[in-house]
Design brief:
7 strands, five-stranded antiparallel β-sheet, alpha+beta
């Protein structure tokens, strides 16, 4: 049988290569779209969690003589795990998932008092007063950050930038900051101002890490 008739029965080498290239391009586009969706979805979930936590912290302060929690009285005082335990054990929130966003490992423990909650389950750093066991008060300026997704060391002086090293739940893509006013922001980029330049706070502020 002539060779040109054989080629008609299946794909030629050129057609096979062309089809493979088209498939790879299509797969790349789909992967990019899915990745973008997951990134946006993850950011939206984190913003929602930050907003909820911001509200819970304010409610906690209202019921505790105007002082925000620092984890005192838990097994992890002065740690963000302690703050999470305080909110969980006092039933301000029944859900430990709220403390993990982005790449952070979700809590999957079974202890009723969340005794197995670990630093690895925490995405958030919090703000305290003069030291890690001194709660800030409800009369602090509204532009003071209360919680933020970062594992970096922050500078509470107005106008100072935070340069992300990539270790936080969103890597070096950005960080989420929740202010005392209730405003929640996703600050995109590897570097951004942490405290607004017009911040009027005169207190001493300390970072509470996991």
């Amino acid at each position: 049988m002539p060779s040109f008739l054989l080629r008609r029965e299946g794909f030629t080498r050129f057609q096979t290569v062309f089809a493979a290239i088209v498939f790879l391009l299509f797969a790349a586009v789909v992967f990019a779209e899915v990745s973008s969706y997951l990134k946006l979805h993850g950011t939206a979930h984190a913003l929602e969690s930050a907003k909820t936590l911001d509200t819970l912290l304010a409610q906690y302060a209202t019921e505790n003589d105007g002082a925000y929690p620092t984890g005192e009285g838990t097994r992890a005082p002065g740690k963000s795990v302690g703050i999470a335990l305080d909110l969980l054990q006092t039933q301000f929130t029944p859900n430990a998932d709220i403390f993990a966003v982005g790449s952070t490992t979700r809590y999957a423990g079974t202890d009723k008092d969340y005794a197995d909650l670990a630093p690895e389950n925490m995405s958030w750093d919090f703000t305290a007063g003069a030291n890690t066991t001194t709660g800030i008060k409800t009369d602090e300026p509204d532009s003071l950050p209360l919680l933020y997704t970062t594992s970096e060391t922050v500078d509470y002086r107005p106008g100072q930038s935070v340069t992300l090293s990539g270790h936080g739940p969103f890597g070096s893509h950005g960080m989420i900051v929740a202010l005392k006013s209730g405003a929640v922001e996703y600050r995109q980029g590897a570097s951004s101002v942490f405290v607004p330049a017009d911040f009027k706070g005169t207190g001493t502020y300390t970072q509470i890490k996991p």
